[in-house]
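ok so i was messing around last nite and threw this chain in just to see what happens. nothing serious, just curious
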Amino acid sequence: MDLQYFESHTMCWGTLGTVRPYSNFHPQRDVKQIHEALEKKDATTLVRILTNRSNAQRQAIAKTFKEATQQDLIAGMKKVLSGDLEALMLELMMPPLQHEAHRLQQAMAGLGTDEETLLEILCTRSSKELRDISSAYKEMYKKDLEKEAKGETSGDFAKLIVALINKEDVAGLVQRDVESLAASLNGKKADVAPWIDILTSRDSNHLNRVLMGLELESGQMVIPVLEKSFSGEIRLGLSVLVECIQNPGMYLAKRLTGMKAPIVQGIMVSHSEEDLLCIRVAFLKLTGTSLYTTLQNYFKGDHLEALLAICRSED
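result:
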C-alpha cells in the first residue's frame, strides 16, 4: 500500500469513498513505472499504483501511456495479468458509467440472467445516473439497454426492470401512496402494478416515508409482506428494491457476504469513490467482522492486495 496516500494533508476526506485522488499525482512518473512493470510482468507494481489513484487519474495515466509509448495500456495489462486479478484491474480502468454498463451487459450475457446484479445496479442508481448508464451502454454495445433487458426478462419482473431503467421522480402524496399499496394487498391476489408504479417514480425520501407509513398502518414489516404476497422473480425484485430504498448500504453489504469474486469486485469498484465507507460500516454491523479482515479469509496474493487497497483500512 502506498504510504504517501496516508501522509497527504491535502486529501479530500469529506467523501464516503475509500479511494480518493492521489495528492502527489504525476502521470508521466506513473507511466514510466507502469511501463517498466509491464515489461517485467510485475503485477505488484501495477496494483500498488492503480489502486492508489482515482478513476479520473487512471484515465489520465492511460492517455499519457498511449501518448508516450504508442501502446494501449489495457492491452498491455491483459498480457501480464490473469484470472480474478485481471478482471479487477480492468474494471478499475473503466470510467464509472462504462463500468456500470459493462456489469449490466455481463449480467445479461450467455445463458440465463443474473437478476440480482441487474437489480443491484438499477435499484441503487438515481434516474439521472441510469440515463447516463443507458447512454454508455448504447455507445459501448450498439444496443438499447431497455430492449436488451426486455429480451432477457419476462412478465411482471420485466415490467419492473423497464420501470427501473426509466426511473423518474414524480410528485406524490405520501398517504395516498400508502393507501394504494395497502389496497393492492387486500384482494385474493396481490396487485403488483401499484408497487412497480410508486416505487419507481418517487424520490427516496418520499418512498421511505411511504414504507414507514405502510408498516405503521399494517403493523408488519414490508419485506415479509412482499414475500407472503408475491412469488418468483417479482418477489425478489420488489424485495431488493425495498431494501435499497430503506438501506442501500446494508443491501450491498449483504451482497458482499457471499465473497464471490465478481460480486465483490463489482461492488467495491463501483462504490470505491462514492460510499464504500457506508458499506463497510453496514458489513461490520451485519457480520460482526470487518470487510478488510473478511477479504483476507477468502482471497490471496496480488488479488487480495488490490482488494485491500480499495477497501483501504480496518474498521
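not much to say yet. Confidence is low (pLDDT under 50) at residues 1-14.
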